Amino acid sequence: MSSGKGGELIPSSSELDLDRPNIEDYLPSGSSIHKPVGKLRLCNLLDISPTLTEAAGAIVDDSFTRCFKSNPPEPWNWNVYLFPLWWCGVVIRYLILFPVRVIVLTVGWIIFLSCFIPVHLLLKGHDKLQKNMERALVELICSFFVASWTGVINYHGPRPSMRPKQVFVANHTSMIDFIILEQMSSFAVIMQKHPGWVGLLQSTILESVGCIWFNRSEAKDRETVTKKLREHSQGVDNNPLLIFPEGTCVNNQYSVMFKKGAFELGCTICPIAIKYNKIFVDAFWNSRKQSFTMHLLQLMTSWAVVCDVWYLEPQNLRPDETPIEFAERVRDIISVRAGLKKVPWDGYLKYSRPSPKHRERKQQSFAESVLRRLEEK
């Protein structure tokens, strides 16, 4: 240590060397400097870039969750000229149309119950007559439901006929899909069991047309349902079987993976494509955020439910196809006709978060695609 001008202490060069970091300690050894770097691997890319891993996970989650999000229309009452028109529309929809629709639905239920109960109780010994009358009454109450929404439904293609060994499959947006299809032709549907008044209707009235219910949380139910499906599809006098192979409601913009159960029955598959017009109301039912009662109120306070239904050409399993490939081919047909975007997701993931292994596989596939694009460039 030496003293400088003004009595300040100036450290010596040896002391400066002690405080100076040794850069050589942070450099690789001489033998490794010239060591050739091997081919960049996926694990190395993910290790050196945790941000890329997080980004891949975010993209995967976003592409999945967007299938189950309702997209509210953009507000158009944003200035002083449009707001009075919007307010007049609110008054008409809630104070005029809604009460009229409630009256229509109430009258429909009165007519339906006054006919269905005697038919169900008094015609038990006449199975064929009882079935025919119950089918007609179920179609009638579904027509009243559609009228309560001021439904404008355009049906394209031949009306479904009752034949053995055929199954109808359709994309799924809401439970009103069944009502819209049922008013045209009586179907026996397979659907998730619901609580409340909807569950009461399922266990009483809808079972009269041969509907089959399941609970996705119980694994044993799947075997029972599969057995019932096979028995129902073989019956000559049974209503046509209607299945929503996505297994959950999707927002009518995307189509998720079809379950293969309907395609393993050895039956002719009759695709049905359903497309709703969102200008008047979004028909998507998010059952996790909204009860079906509130969903119906939303429909009944809208201007109208506008929908197109296409009965498409029947399809059969090809000799070189697996049931999974058959399901994907039918999904392609429905998606093209309804203008839906296909995504490689299982709809049941809506009810449970994807496992870490599943997310990791998706992240790896995303990173691999990035690497391929980089190598091509």
TrEMBL record:
Q: In which pathway does it act?
A: Lipid metabolism
Q: Which GO terms describe its cellular component?
A: endoplasmic reticulum; membrane
Q: Which UniProt keywords apply?
A: Acyltransferase, Lipid biosynthesis, Lipid metabolism, Membrane, Phospholipid biosynthesis, Phospholipid metabolism, Transferase, Transmembrane, Transmembrane helix
Q: Where in the cell is it found?
A: Membrane
Record GO biological process: phospholipid biosynthetic process; triglyceride biosynthetic process
What GO terms are given for molecular function?
glycerol-3-phosphate O-acyltransferase activity
Q: Which InterPro entries match?
A: LPCAT1-like, Plipid/glycerol_acylTrfase
Q: Which family does it belong to?
A: Belongs to the 1-acyl-sn-glycerol-3-phosphate acyltransferase family.
PANTHER family (UniProt xref): GLYCEROL-3-PHOSPHATE ACYLTRANSFERASE 4, ISOFORM D-RELATED, PHOSPHOLIPID ACYLTRANSFERASE
Q: What is this protein called?
A: Glycerol-3-phosphate acyltransferase 3
Native species of this protein? Gossypium arboreum (Tree cotton)
